[in-house]
Amino acid sequence: MSTVTIKDIARALNISTSTVSRALRGSYEINQETKELVLEYAERLNYRPNPIALSLKENRSRAIGVIVPQIANYFFSQAINGIEAIAYNRGYHVIIFQSQESYEREAANMQQAMDRKVDGLLISLSSETSDVSHLRALQEQGLPIVQFDRVSHELDTTCIVADNFGGAFAATEHLIKAGRQRIAHLTIPPWLSITQERLAGYRAALEQYGLPYDETLVRYGTFGQNETGPMVDELLALPSPPDAFFTASDRLALGCLASLHQRHIAIPDDVSLIGFTNLNAADLLNPALSTVVQPAQEIGQVAVERLIELIEKKQKAAPPSTVKIPTRLIVRESTRSVVHS
Amino acid sequence: MSTVTIKDIARALNISTSTVSRALRGSYEINQETKELVLEYAERLNYRPNPIALSLKENRSRAIGVIVPQIANYFFSQAINGIEAIAYNRGYHVIIFQSQESYEREAANMQQAMDRKVDGLLISLSSETSDVSHLRALQEQGLPIVQFDRVSHELDTTCIVADNFGGAFAATEHLIKAGRQRIAHLTIPPWLSITQERLAGYRAALEQYGLPYDETLVRYGTFGQNETGPMVDELLALPSPPDAFFTASDRLALGCLASLHQRHIAIPDDVSLIGFTNLNAADLLNPALSTVVQPAQEIGQVAVERLIELIEKKQKAAPPSTVKIPTRLIVRESTRSVVHS
DNA sequence: ATCGTTCCCGGCAACGTTTGCGGTAATAAA
DNA sequence: TTTATTACCGCAAACGTTGCCGGGAACGAT
């Protein structure tokens, strides 16, 4: 109803739409008086250009698509926070898609994002995704893509990730220095890049300190519910059970903590626990949880900055590379070293 | 580059675009053979209609705007989760805006949402917002609006909220029954509807059990950082300090818990603590936190369902009303009753 | 008087799609 | 044979905006 168009202004001022258009963007070939007239009138009627018409004309949308497995996950919501803040300032909108850890939905989301003509795509892969040909197809069509957190290196895109190796190394080293010898690693699906990197950091630390790498101490979860119980049970039933747990995600850390509570295992007296997490309440847990924090917001920010750079400079942008954002080890009660008398 | 348009199909098949368009939507005035030809060809080339062109023509976008104070807040991210799931199934996209608890950004977000021609708006007000004339203006222009959680009743829209009164009543009643007499209420800005409702529930419970209502026990926070420390200090310095804390948000509950820890106040031995929250790790806190849980996801779902109803039935939709979603009291360690000997 | 400039502006097409209207054949009814 | 009906399809406008092209007026230079 009340939306003012360039035509309305043209009609009211008895000039052509092209003149109005040029006046509005301050073209040099418009009379100063006319310009002021148009500007003043547009201001008064609160004229706002129709971005949809622009999109149609310029075949772009000033929107970027963000595909994440789950919004209701503190890591991703923080990352989106970082993304949205930057994008907003740069004049881009953010359209959110959730893959719900489903390959199919992820592919459908991409199709939708393409249909909507997003100018670029930010994606963190679903845990089901091992084949990335759908992504490659879009990339080959010229869509700027930046991966973050859960990335695939089979794809030649810019990737923004936490320093998973370093974080895992630091966590494992810390446990070892606190006197732990049998360190279990509860982690996420093995085909994810971050899983491999964390596992590598874990192994490197074990090796450096002369501890054996025992495959039976490494357990892979999905992102399902209540899967830690059985994992913990199996580990504790081993002939030589673990004296520490290093978990690779928020959910696993919390699940593991809950499972240990239920089984009346004392932390850190019986076992240590450290997470690779993003919780803001880790220090309020029982016990306060040692953790390797991932700078989720910063990852989001860097990712969207790179993406916009890619969108706007297209050809002469920095070549694809992987950016590692440092992680931080925070030591709390759950990994206190226990003196064996 | 590779996007197929109706024109491409028309050219290839040597027919007009109107015929293609009609064939694609199965118009009766197109020859069966032609239809099949077009459908088959469109399928083969993976034709997908350009939603932007549609939007321009029909002056709608099949997108709904969601304005929340903060994405990185478990309540809102869960609500968005619910929203996105439903919207997706109904063919709508979700465009997210964060007001960052700023009135100005909220207003700017609305403007942007309007510019983008969202078909409807879902909003939870920023804590700074007391004047809602900007919202009213949009509503009077015919934009379907549904408020959720932080709503203003100065506006005649459908509102979806948790049962704040009931939840606060239940929490307060529970504390009283556990033997507490001086119950402090740490809450959010007083001009928010949810604040008033929770306060009313708190007062009603006090009254029902014959306890006096003491204004000095009620403290209003903003949504800033680290504001609970001073509040807790002031309360504990009262001549007759509280023996229980009832907090009105995730952040206040966690902040209060942290502040009490720092001051070495034992929970629940010295004071009780119960939150009005949405944390999924409340049972893992130290101590396990009693809480009134808000069904965030359900609130989001109901809100978007109502909004879509409003969008699609416009005139004959249900009249504005306020829907209260029940809350649930979960009792844990932090409000254990302490036997005074 | 003619030509070249400069300044300012309007017409038109285009982006992809839908839709009202008109038109052409073929067939049926008179 | 003429007329009405049916079945099928194309033309063109419209949504809001931009940009190319062209053109008129005014002016100075030749």
TrEMBL record, chains A, B:
This is LacI family DNA-binding transcriptional regulator. It comes from Hymenobacter citatus. Residues 4-58 form the HTH lacI-type domain. Pfam families: LacI, Peripla_BP_3. InterPro entries: HTH_LacI, LacI/GalR-like_sensor, Lambda_DNA-bd_dom_sf, Peripla_BP_I. Gene3D superfamilies: 3.40.50.2300, lambda repressor-like DNA-binding domains (1.10.260.40). Coiled coil: none annotated. GO terms for molecular function: DNA binding. Keywords: DNA-binding, Transcription, Transcription regulation.
